Amino acid sequence: MSRRFREIIIKNIFAVFAVLSVLILGLIVIFLFREGLPIFREVSVSKFLFGNFWYPTYDPPEYGIWPLIVGSLLVTLFACLIAVPMGVLSAIYISEIAPASIKEILKSVIELLAGLPSVVLGFFGMVIVAPWLQETFDLPTGLNIVNASVMLAIMAIPTISSISEDALYAVPREYKEASYALGATKFETIVNISVPAALSGISTAVILGMARAIGETMVVLMVAGGAAAIPQSIFDSVRPMPASIAAEMGEAPYRSGHYHALFATGIVLFFITLAFNLVADYISNKFKEEGSGTL
Amino acid sequence: MTMQSYMRWRYFKQRIFFGVVSLSALVITLTLLGILVYVFIHGFRAVTWDFLTLPPTDSMTKGGIMPAIVGTLYLTVGAISIALPLGVVSAIYLTEYAKQGRLIRMIRVGVNCLAGVPSVVFGLFGLGFFVVFLKFGSSILAGSLTLGILILPTIIGASEEALKSVPQTFREASLALGVSKWNTISRIVMPSALPSILTGAILGVGRAAGETAPIMFTAAAFFTAVLPRSIFDEVMALPYHIYVLATAGANIEQTRPLQFGTALVLVSLVLGIDLIAIVIRSAIRRKKRW
Question: Do B120 and A89 touch (CB under 8 A)?
Fold first, then answer.
């Protein structure tokens, strides 16, 4: 009896800890709202989201984060243009083509790239890429959309590559063998069999890579240039949402309008990435790859 | 088109494709190497014994980074001592106890979403909850807690993988001998899974050591003259120090060597930690007997 009792107690204690992650997520929402919602006493939701002017320190202040949202979306989009092909192609190389020894090395490379601190990448972008861009294209500043996108792409590639690789690896061998048996080349098998079979996993990888890029802070803080205006060209500076939060929170007086506005920007950022993650989760569950046994 | 030229065309396409694909892998590798080599070349001259053991002097334009190294150490140790127990216990529940159902589904979605929360949002949460609401102030405690919940999903994921890789027959053999479930987990499953769990923990440490945004508002100080004396003190931290020197220092151009030196120390620390984990993991895989 006492043993059964003990087992039940242990199980329930463990359950409480397991739910903790969900509770923390809830707490994050609660405290973002607690500190962020008061801004909507000063400015309407639509004025906040779609207002074109972010002048939080002016008198009277303007709290329109549309330029910040556009900045975030643009650098994420351009980062994906680089990171998606690079990530998916490298995943194909690693899982389908590379010999075992190179495969191990490349997997370590991807993992180390994922581990590279973002502040170091930002620093690299500032001191190497920015002066180079400025000189090559004769620009007023090298801290711009192009620079930020390239650095963000480097951050997103490991996410996209490793998740795509898992998806490709999970494609049952029988599929490929059937394709070879029909006389298909390795290339035709990859393009017609492996990639389509792994497509849900690859889509998940791309979405999570985008979420990673849009939420990344230090890179955009250091290399995006920081201009809170709608850009006219890809060589213009922008001020993506995370950069704005990180740069200004230190100076915003406690519980001022500016402080609340930055938390509200955090709410927007949080829900954008949450949406990305929920979609990724939905896709990977809905189109779960089934083994050959279920055919 | 003859049969032969058709076949040649198909293999030609294949060669082009293989070329493009291996090129992308090559570019990624060269990017990593390029960054590492560049940071090393520009940084290694700055990294001397004094640089590692002395505090900054002359408004941070000279001297070393010792307080930042110590601060990062404190924050990282704090983060892992919070995340490791919580993460392992969650993973044990998810893999060993829970039955498939609503609750499990909810927890999993929660963990996935937590993993996707941007680091700056963790910073905001840490500020709103630990610093302001719980009145910890900007401190080692608040920073460690924030970093701890940041790496929690990583730890849960790694521990789950580790527990799942322990063969079901181990558990069945133990249960068949009349051993209780808890004893089966603590005496049979955990010892087999422990090396992999620790590998995951090491990776978590590397992640925590390199993060900047979560500690900006919760722990990091621009400059401290003395080392922290309690967990309620602010600390300097390596990643934040790089950011400060590179963007807001007293003389940005003149302190470049210091910036590269700090970057080199941080990169060596973080990637060294990651490399240790990678090596341990491949050793575990090779020695696996089941």
Answer: no
